[in-house]
Structures are given as C-alpha cells and as structure tokens.
C-alpha cells in the first residue's frame, strides 16, 4: 500500500480537500465507486497527485470516512449543550441533531449502504464507533454524578446500546422512500435511549 503525504502548506491542504470533495461527489453519483484515476480525471489533475495525498484507494476511502465522522463529531457529538437542561433534555436535543445531520448529509446513505462492505470503511468505523461509545459513556457518567441518571447503569454498555440503535435505525430510515420524518425517527430512538440509561422500565440493580 502506498503511503500518503500529509500536506504542509495551505495550498496543499486546499488541494487535498478539493480532491476529497470530488471523490465524495463521485461516490454519491456512482453509489460508492471510488477510483483514484477517476477522481484525478474529474479534478483535472494527474493521478500521481491523488496518490500523493491519499496513497491508495483504501486511503482515499478512509479519508472520506474520517471526513464524515469529523463533521459528525464537530456538529453533534462535541456540541456543548449544558445550558439546555438536565441530561434527558440535552441528550434528546443531541439525538435530534444527529438524526438531522444524517438526513442532511447525502454521503451517509452511501457510507451505511454500498460502502459498508469495503474493508477500509469497516476498519475505520470500528475505531470511530468505539470513540463515540466512550463519549456517550462519559456523558452518562456525568449524568449519574449529577443524580440525573440511575447509578446502576453500566455507562459503556448503555452507550453502545444507544449508538448501535441509532446506527441501525439510520440505516433503515435512509433507505426508505419517502423517508420517515425526523420527529418519528427521534421518537423511536429516544425510547431506546431512555430504556438504555434506566429512565424507563425496571430500575437497574445497584452494583
């Protein structure tokens, strides 16, 4: 596998981003077909330039996955919602923003659909999913310390249940025509979140 070169200048970073934008557009047009030669042709550059910044097809696909999750993290996961209320209020807002992000991002359907079979996508998703689960677990621990969530809940298991449910519900919702409303998806997912953290159903046993 060829090694990608990280751009050191503003011009280099802009070129890499332009190539990434072209690759995303082609992936959307072809439902997941990503080829370095076609990206180079569409961008009007020589193939060696795409190789320089991404190394290989796997490197380019991995960069597309990273770009998607970087934006999800910046726009949803890292959003500071502490002023919006207690844990149930803030996390329902975050959940709705996550659903709206997926609905507004055309690449989500390709990532969870045709590209899901790509080994590099699977590898990248595992690492990103573990990070998101840990962030959810951190949020749950904070809610427990503030007395807003039951202390008997296992934060990582609950975080995994929350994110796993969201991913699979989004896979289903994004493939429907027409798509279910954002409100309907949020309502379904919130029931899963509430059950995962002990806000509904039997109270968990204290450890």
Short characterization:
With 207 residues, this protein is mainly alpha-helical. The chain contains nine helices and no strands.
Key structural traits:
single chain, 207 residues, mainly alpha, Arc Repressor Mutant, subunit A, Tetracycline Repressor, domain 2, 2 domains, 9 helices, elongated, disordered C terminus
Tell me what the structure shows.
Helices cover 70% and strands 0% of the residues. With 207 residues, it is mainly α. Helix 3 crosses helix 4 (57-77) and helix 7 (119-145) packs across helix 8. The chain has helices at 10-30, 36-43, 47-54, 57-77, 87-104, 107-112, 119-145, 155-174, 182-196. The chain has 2 domains: 10-55, Arc Repressor Mutant, subunit A; 60-196, Tetracycline Repressor, domain 2, CATH 1.10.357.
The helix content, as a percent range, equals: 55-70%
| CATH third-tier fold name of the largest domain | Tetracycline Repressor, domain 2
Shape: elongated
**Quick one: CATH superfamily of the largest domain?**
Tetracycline Repressor, domain 2
Overall SS class: mainly alpha
Beta-strand fraction estimate = under 5%
H/E series, N to C? Answer: HHHHHHHHH
* Main sheet summary: none
Number of spatially distinct domains = 2
Q: Low-confidence parts, pLDDT < 50 over ≥5 residues?
A: 202-207
Rg: 19 Å
Summed over residues and divided by their number, the pLDDT gives a mean of 92
Count of DSSP helices? Answer: 9
């Amino acid at each position: 596998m060829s090694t990608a070169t990280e751009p050191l200048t503003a011009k280099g970073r802009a070129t890499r981003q332009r190539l990434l934008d072209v690759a995303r557009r082609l992936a959307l047009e072809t439902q997941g077909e990503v080829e370095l030669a076609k990206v180079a042709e569409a961008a009007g550059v020589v193939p060696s330039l795409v190789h320089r910044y991404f190394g290989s097809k796997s490197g380019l696909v991995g960069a597309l996955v990273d770009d998607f999750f970087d934006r999800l993290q910046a726009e949803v996961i890292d959003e500071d919602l502490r002023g919006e209320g207690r844990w149930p209020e803030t996390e329902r807002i975050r959940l709705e923003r996550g659903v709206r992000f997926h609905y507004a991002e055309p690449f989500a359907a390709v990532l969870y659909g045709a590209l899901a079979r790509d080994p590099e996508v699977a590898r990248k998703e595992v690492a990103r999913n573990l990070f998101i689960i840990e962030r959810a677990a951190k949020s749950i621990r904070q809610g427990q310390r503030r007395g807003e969530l039951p202390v008997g809940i296992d934060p990582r298991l609950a975080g995994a249940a929350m994110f796993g449910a969201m991913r699979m519900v989004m896979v289903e919702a994004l493939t429907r025509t027409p798509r279910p409303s954002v409100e309907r998806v949020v309502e379904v997912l919130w029931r899963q979140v509430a059950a995962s953290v002990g806000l509904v159903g039997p109270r968990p046993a204290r450890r």
